[in-house]
Amino acid sequence: MDRPDCDPLLLERTYAQFPLVNRFVSGWRQVYVALIRPALPRNRTGTILDIGCGGGDITRNLFRWATADGFDVRVVGIDPDARAHDYAVRSAAKAGIDPTLLEFRRAASSELVSRGERFDVVVSNHVLHHLGPVELAGVFADTERLARTLAIHSDIRRRRSALVFFGLATLPLDRSSYIRRDGLTSIRRSFTADELSRVVRPEWHVYSPGLYRNLAVWHAPAALP
Ligand SMILES: C[S@@+](CC[C@H](N)C(=O)[O-])C[C@H]1O[C@@H](n2cnc3c(N)ncnc32)[C@H](O)[C@@H]1O
């Protein structure tokens, strides 16, 4: 799906199937409750940035959960891919969400750094395994400059059994989208917990909730309990 010449119909269906896959494998509700909710301010507008938001389903969920919890919050999802950006904008409009509160921008993290933007919480999902060593170091450095309080990069943890289970569970989707093929490639490219611990910067901590997930977490020095 990363190829510029990929089939537009299969790509559209892939974005449409991401919410289903993310709901089962990504565990963002637990991450929101345990880490993000306690880090959001109650006395002013809070801000969340989702780097590499793709079709924007996790961005939308973070906005919904924070709003339902009574936070005055502004959420931004960025992705340099025009097709992902277009899908995310359309989905939020279809859901009737105010674009001044949930905004999607076609941009890379470095562009927001250049503009000096800051957010209370910065997150990403399934971005790390996409990046080469130089880009990876860049995204970690960008994240520290963009996050005021907390940053969380969540990604697949590579295990052989993940290939088996994901391969079987997504068999029915095989011909309808890129989910199965790209998902298996993503699992193969992803990090073990040890590998991720070796590539994060010193102030980051790697946690492995469940069998198939790595979280790289950073607290701004002044925000530490
Ligand atoms: C596998 S997709 C993940 C999409 C979405 N987060 C999800 O979980 O469904 C990875 C995305 O990261 C984006 N990306 C890669 N490097 C980035 C950067 N430096 N800043 C913002 N987005 C980036 C890519 O364009 C791609 O759409």
UniProtKB/TrEMBL annotation:
<dbReference type="InterPro" id="IPR029063">
    <property type="entry name" value="SAM-dependent_MTases_sf"/>
</dbReference>
<keyword id="KW-0949">S-adenosyl-L-methionine</keyword>
<dbReference type="GO" id="GO:0008168">
    <property type="term" value="F:methyltransferase activity"/>
</dbReference>
<dbReference type="GO" id="GO:0032259">
    <property type="term" value="P:methylation"/>
</dbReference>
<keyword id="KW-0489">Methyltransferase</keyword>
<keyword id="KW-0808">Transferase</keyword>
<protein>
    <submittedName>
        <fullName>2-polyprenyl-3-methyl-5-hydroxy-6-metoxy-1, 4-benzoquinol methylase</fullName>
    </submittedName>
</protein>
<dbReference type="Pfam" id="PF13649">
    <property type="entry name" value="Methyltransf_25"/>
</dbReference>
<feature type="domain" description="Methyltransferase">
    <location>
        <begin position="48"/>
        <end position="147"/>
    </location>
</feature>
<dbReference type="InterPro" id="IPR041698">
    <property type="entry name" value="Methyltransf_25"/>
</dbReference>
